[in-house]
Amino acid sequence: MPPAAVISSTVPANGDVNPYGVAFVPQGFPAHGTISANDLLVANFNNANNLQGTGTTIVKIVPNGNPSVFFAGPSGLGLTTALGVLRAGFVLVGNVPTTDGTFATIQPGSLLVLNRTGGIVAQWTSSNAGLDGPWDLTIFDLGDRAKVFVSNVLNGTVVRLDVAIDANGIHLQRSTRIASGYPFRGDPAALVVGPTGLAYDPQRDVLYVASTADNAIFAVYGAGATRHDGGKGALIYADNRHLHGPLALALGPNGHLFTANGDAVNAEATQPSEIVEFTPQGRFVAQLPMDAAPGGAFGLAFSQAQGGMVKFAAVDDNVPNITVWSLSTEHTRP
Predict the structure, then answer these.
(1) Which residues are CB-contacts of 94 (< 8 A; sequence separation ≥ 6)?
(2) What are the start-end ranges of the H helices in the chain?
(3) Record's SUPFAM superfamilies (predicted)?
């Protein structure tokens, strides 16, 4: 019997489309906000006119219904796949704006820090955080401190942001470029192509990077502690049969990696919008189609495990909607 799945809309009342970022609110998240532990959040990249780099909303998914708005920012933000939640009560979201939906007007953007009611409490930019097109992120959350890894789609780098959290709020302590050399370019359909998905294994201190233009996955060793730029890292997975422009990346509870094919690179008409599962040693495991047309797969995320179960969420930004599977931790694959 296939695992249970629920498909829900990601479109808020203002009509934003093209869902990118996906994040579950972790256990231990403070009460008395507009989001709670185990809620599912999605960030929108396009506005109601489908102009890329102009979406302004983060929505809380309502199963089988219309989402509610957690955050509605100023016009023209372009909220990216760089969406994550700290259990201390903060939401991080990247933005890569355009003024007309084209690469010609793309801007460096920033990483916004939101409180648990959706208010902006900090903004990290190129000047204070070394960001240039924050396209995706992953978080190693230690409660009163965290390591936030961010991929920069406009200069082909990855930075680690070391942050501290106390009674006075959240504080950016240091920004360190830990990887570079990933190719990046404008794209007429995808807007921009460059390093995207990040997944961190704290037990091995390895950061995995989905380099979309390379059509490959790299491993940056010592990512949580290094003070140096290690280049692209070690190539761990290059599979032209199953990789078609990997975007978002997640580490599953079974130790496997999951990536979403965006089809802007090495497109294959018979395998559109695939999610691919593979091992950190580079062995293909399985694939799952999200849409019959290309370009539908993008953001994905796993929840924390509870009672032997875990949720896996993935957007289809062609529709747009999100599918959430409830899985046994012993059988992670949807």
Answers:
(1) 21, 79, 80, 81, 82, 83, 109, 110, 111, 112, 131, 134, 135, 136, 137, 150
(2) 126-129
(3) Calcium-dependent phosphotriesterase
Query: Under CATH, what is the fold of the domain 4-238?
Result: Neuraminidase (2.120.10)
Distance CA 243, CA 271 (A): 10
- CA dist 296 and 318 (Å) reads 5
* Cα torsion angle, 319, 117, 109, 146, sign: negative
Residues 121, 139 contacting (CB under 8 angstroms): no
Of 228, 210, 97, 212, nearest to 159 by C-alpha is: 228
Task: Yes or no: say if 114 and 91 are a contact pair by the CB < 8 Å rule.
Answer: yes
| Extents of the domains making up the chain | 4-238
pLDDT greater than 90 at residue 2: no
pLDDT tens digits for range 308-331: 999 999 999 999 999 999 998 876
Q: What is the pTM of this model?
A: 0.97
